[in-house]
Please model this.
Amino acid sequence: MQSYSERFDAGELIFSEGDAPTGAFLIESGRIEISTTQFGEHRVLGELGPGMLIGEMAVIDESPRTATARAITPCQLTRIDATQFAERLATADPVVRALLLSQLTRYRSALAKLTGGNDTASANMHGAHDDAHAIGKIRLESELRAAIERKELEVRLQPIEEIETGHIAGYEALVRWTHPRRGDVSPAEFIRLAEETSLIVPIGDYVLERVCDMLVEFRRRGRKPLPFIALNVSARQLDDPGFVDRIIAHLHERELPPQRLKLEITESLVLDQARIAALLTRCHAVGMPVALDDFGTGFSNLGPLLTLDFDQIKLDASFVRALDRPRGVAVVGVVVAMTRALDCDLIAEGVETREQREILHRLGCRYAQGWLVGRPTTFEQALDR
Ligand code: C2E
Ligand code: CA
Ligand code: CA
Model:
């Protein structure tokens, strides 16, 4: 078996230009000279010492060594297996990986020009598809950034009906992006991208401001009772310690009742119970309701409900679709009973047919949201309902 700690004597060769990449080294002690042959002549590229890595480039892109490493003094090196880098690289953010590989490619072709050698890196374009995907993401991110600045995002409202009375009790705010070339980009795609970066913060602030202005406009038009508007909140926004304060400040500024703005927290975020408990305390202190979104999907676990007192639960559309089977009806019936016992309201999402609404009504579900009630519309259209 190969030893992970290796000793080299002064003058000894560690690897040579053109060698296959077997691994990288961390220099523990001693000094190493990195050199290359430039148009047939020996050229020193640099000298490296303790704490530095050598040979990592060849390991990253699996190209032959582009330089020679030789111990100047006696050296102690720790060998780093190629798979150690490969595993990390494989799980790294694809954008970071694309950046790294692009830098490496550029460095290698510059080196090739300098030494009169072969441009091995350009030939070694493995992972090109992966790069294209990452580059696409970078481009979309830049475009999204510009769209935010130019206020090209639009906030639509989808009505939520009280089933018993047929009255529109409120709306869910859903953001839309009309891309100049691609047309409508689904929030499912760009919200995920925004969540990977800090872009979700300005988007969230923009949606918040629009929603507050819409509430003001509903009030000005004399809409009574004032409908509520629900806002989707993502993980990064919750990380922001000033988040709830900003919401409260916006409401105060416009003298809006906090009961009319509702936050929706998706079920997967509830895994971090302490954080959500703090948010609930904070919101309830000012009278702002909080809904548990997408209930029943993926992370289904009743544990959080033991401690977290949500005001509303939004039943995921997959359960509504299951209402055409006795099993689905049985499960939804149990969810209705549970929410009633917990003293919170239930909103069924994705209600598309009269039959679904009829069954939900019979089971005792209070609210329905979905195409049957109305698609997400512009604010002007919502004013007319
Ligand atoms: P969500 O919170 O579960 O929103 C409900 C989604 O279901 C919306 O998709 C809505 O258009 C769609 N929908 C409503 N009724 C029906 C129906 O009857 N049938 C079907 N098939 N679909 C229906 P949308 O607008 O594409 O939004 C997707 C997700 O993007 C939302 O899921 C939410 O998680 C996220 N999102 C949207 N706007 C925002 C936002 O402003 N901030 C954040 N953080 N996330 C947002
Ligand atoms: Ca939602
Ligand atoms: Ca939902």
Observations:
- The mean pLDDT is 89.
